[in-house]
Fold these 2 entries.
Entry 1:
Amino acid sequence: MAHDHHDHHNDHEHGDHHAPHDHGDIDWAEMAPHLEAQAELYTPLYRQAMAWLAREVTDPGLVVDVGSGPGVVSCLFAETFPGARVVAADGAAPLLERAHARAERLGFGDRFGTLAGDLPAALADLDYPADLMWASQSLHHLPDQRAALAALGGHLAPGGTLAILEGGLPARFLPRDIGFGRPGLQARIRAVEEDAFAEMRADLPDSVAETEDWPAMLTTAGLKHTGTRSFLLDLPAPVSEAARDYVTTSLSRLRERIGERLDADDLATLDRLLDPADEAGVHRRQDLFVLVAHTVYTAVRPV
Ligand SMILES: C[S@@+](CC[C@H](N)C(=O)[O-])C[C@H]1O[C@@H](n2cnc3c(N)ncnc32)[C@H](O)[C@@H]1O
């Protein structure tokens, strides 16, 4: 198969797919531990989404995880569909190495492949069409989302399902009033993040602006929209250490990325939250929670 581990190594050796600037300015390989921890924490949400998908998709031969990152979800697919071959496709070869190691560790190595390269073009190396394609928060990193959907659809077997996870509701970690600073910090941070996200998209080479009406885009891509459902990750206080680490890392990364765009008061509040020595900071406070909703849209390639 073109996408077994051996060939993935060839990709790694002869290509430069893992260069951070291959697909935008984000250094995905550097994010590996965070992406992995996040997907592990979000596993209950993915399991709900997969149970929903498994009602429509029975016994797929090939499942492709498009923009898989470190492969946590790819491995959940291998577990959910024991008869399936799973291919994790991504532009960041170091993330795919993690995906492969994970699959080996969990005992799925013999039916797990990776495909390194720019998406969606890299999917041309698939040996046969997919029965199920999953793209979780990867499409929004591609310059032309509508064209990408059409390309993904072209790699589906007739009757095959494309499931995309995009949108939903942003993660909340803190109460509206945290006892210091101006109430509503997370909502204001979110507004700044939305601007940064819009700039990220606009700065992608050959970026195409799009009304993000996913059912309409799926229809334009020649697919039949079959369902939309949102899934909740609801980890109430008091949270596990893993959830606390995730919140802490998320807010630290956010501070690095967009801290300077916050007003001085909010930045001071965020810095206090990130101070490990502060009783009211996220390292210690007892009211932290994780609440997030992700939406999954499904569509079928007509027979
Ligand atoms: C936000 S992460 C999502 C990872 C995983 N699907 C999840 O939900 O946790 C986006 C992934 O898309 C990949 N990606 C972004 N743009 C890409 C491109 N143009 N070609 C290939 N992969 C790309 C990144 O390397 C990264 O692993």
Entry 2:
Amino acid sequence: MIRTRRLTVVCLVVVAAALVAALVHRLPKASSSSSSPPPSAAAPSPPRGAAPHASRSGHRGPPDADDGVVPDGVTVFDDATAAVTKLDPGLLTALRRAATAAADDRVTFFVNSGWRSPAYQNQLLREAVAEYGSEDEAARWVATAVTSPHVAGDAVDIGRTAAADWLARHGAAYGLCRIYDNEPWHYELRGDARDHGCPQRYADPTEDPRMRR
Ligand SMILES: [Zn+2]
């Protein structure tokens, strides 16, 4: 009797210990699966979203390829980069025709910048103001999101030097014109240029009436 009682007690203790162990083992699991996700999911995202681009609805983090940031080595024939694919179709067609001809001269048209989102343009303007020290000086180089022909998809900054040189000599035949004296890389489509040559250039964007909107 005493032995069986002891055995029973031992068994009960073992069972109880197992239950406790099981509970203890489960409790953290249960609490981690039910209560921890909200804090861990909520904690990183509000600061990230609220930080530099709080004003940009539905977009988090710094500008990326979807904003028109261009990875190294992208040419006018790229079909996957927004900076290229979101250019005005007429401009892109002219660029590709010119680039095809330039390839015979072993010249490649790289895209340093093309279409840009308003958010990306605004960041470039903020950086230019910081770099040049004033909004007036920055305006010589970077337009606002409202006035920039890049945001409209109407402008491309061509690299590298050989391509810009090729366009300076042959671009007009394709309707591709340099617009500003201070930006030998910046080209836009001017359909009349094929027959009448490119219009007179502005010294810099501050002379461009389109910048005064
Ligand atoms: Zn440009």
